Structures are given as structure tokens and as C-alpha cells.
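Thread: quick sanity check before group meeting

JM: Hey all, I'm pulling together slides for Thursday and realized we never actually wrote out the predicted structure for the chain we discussed last week. Dropping the sequence here so it's in one place. If anyone has concerns about the input, flag it before I start.
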Amino acid sequence: MKFSRFTIAVYVTLVFASGAVLGAFGHRLYTVSAVSANTRRNPEEFRKRYISEMQTRLSLNQTQLVQLNSILDETRSRFKEAHARMDPELDRIRAEQQKKVRDILQGAQQVEYDRMRQERDERMRREGRPPGPGL
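JM (edit): ok, ran it. Output follows.
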């Protein structure tokens, strides 16, 4: 059985294309990572990222950084107490933290902090989650 050049070219192209598709599919399977909805966020990682973002975006000086850490420590202990008592005052504690953070900032920093808050609230709204402590 003799094949024409065109038929051979079609077969070679099909073999090459199927290899490329199979390779892409295999690569996708190999590199995809498992996502678990039940993973809990590490509070220390969240705090480090939060402080890092605050330093970067707000250009905090050393005094402000110490005050921010103090505010976060106080808020964490109040949240733990409120959770232990099943206290519905978590929103009030969160609002007080935000006010204290805003009070240690200066003019331009306050504007940027407000922008960060709006971005976070929008992100939380899109994800369908209630706002949490922090930013």
C-alpha cells in the first residue's frame, strides 16, 4: 500500500499535534496544586503580611511600627476573650482597632490606610466573606 506525500504529511501532523496536546495535558496535571477549602490561615503569617504591607504602603516609622504591634497584640487578646465568652462585640473591637491604627498615622498615611481598607472590604465582599480583624 503506497501513501501519497499529502497523506503522509497529514499523518505526521496529526501525530505531532496529538503529542503536543497530550504533553500540555500532562503538564497541566503535573503542575496543578491541590486546594483545600478547609485550610486555616496561620495568624502569624497573616500578621507578618499585614505589617509588611502597612510598612510598605504607609511608610511607617519605627515608633508607628511599635505602636501598631501594640495595637495588634491588644486586639488579639480582646478577640480571644470575646470568642471565649461568645461575645457579640467583635465588630466594636474591630472598629476600635481601626480607629487606633488610624490615630497613629499622619495625613497622607491616613488617606492610604483608608484606601487599603476600601480595597480589603471590596475583596472580602467579592469572596463572600465577612470582614475579619486586621486591615
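AS: nice. The helical segments are 5-31, 43-58, 62-85, 90-104, 107-127. The first helix runs from residue 5 to 31.
JM: adding both to the slides.
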